[in-house]
User: Fold this.
Amino acid sequence: MLHGPAAMGEPWQPQPQPQQQRLPGLGNASEPSAWPSAAGGPGTAAPGGGGGAGAAGAAGAVSPWDIALCATGTAVAGENALVLAVLFYTPSLRAPMFLLIGSLALADLLAGLGLVANFAVRYLLRPPSEAAELGAAGLLLAAFSASVCSLLAITVDRYLSLYNALTYHSERTLGFTCAMVLLMWVLCLGVGLLPLLGWNCLRDQSACSILRPVTKDNAAVLAVTFLLLFALMMQLYLQICKIAFRHAQQIAVQHQFIATAQATSTRKGLSTLSLILGTFALCWIPFAIYSLVADSSYPVVYTYSLALPATCNSLINPIIYAFRNPDIQKSLWLACCGCIPSTFSSRPRTSSDV
Assistant:
């Protein structure tokens, strides 16, 4: 049965539909930006959220937080590219230890490029592309996963080099290390493909986490996995401390002068591990816990303030792992100045060095 004007013989006219309201910025209100997508991040205000980056697009303005993340990503990419260049062009730096440092530098380089790519996807790509957003998110997921796994691999390498100090260096071949690094990267690249394979909330914005476009449940899985890996790193670190303490007691009993260099190297390795794990915890643990308990309704400024220190960890890693290494320092001096300073002290590399 017809109702309305058509039933009374009046000509039917279509009713005007209300125009869909769109918020300024990238996409509409249900399409936050990509950055926190993979690395935990901030995007435009999520439904029910507290404004935050949603104001980033107001009148076409660029959020200062996004500028800071993009600048950090640029610095991270440049710094780690320098490390990779030194490792690539120095034939003497082909030991398994430097391969692990190179893996860490490559992961952090990709993380920096991912931050820049997310900025470009949000502010420069018109019209917005879901494929580009998911691709940038996947790049960040893969890069930061590889960075964490590389740190774990370096920790394992340090532990085994102390636990089997007499035989480890003969058993640890470059080919075996390459195979392990390759397997690790395959797994991390698989993690990076998850947003493209369905681990996203682009079709259901209410399910988004602060790690947009990852859903809340999947973000919880990633956060728990990260915390477990960090717990494993801490356990290995405690074992390294016990082994180093036992070595120090043996050295004290023997009173051999030749053991002094080994004791100094052990202390240096322990201080380096304390520095890297302490920095890693301060940068990442608050963000991991926040991504575990928070959702897209939380004010996005909290996500930005925790995500920025987390990305800075990739800026600190080359300083701790690469630029403090005497062999890399020597290569940098030769590349930049063509000489080595007379004050530069070079000593043989030992199993305790990082």
Observations:
- The CA atoms of residues 245 and 263 lie 10 Å apart.
- The radius of gyration is 26 Å.
- Confidence is low (pLDDT under 50) at residues 1-59, 348-354.
- Residues 216-254 form the longest helix (39 residues).
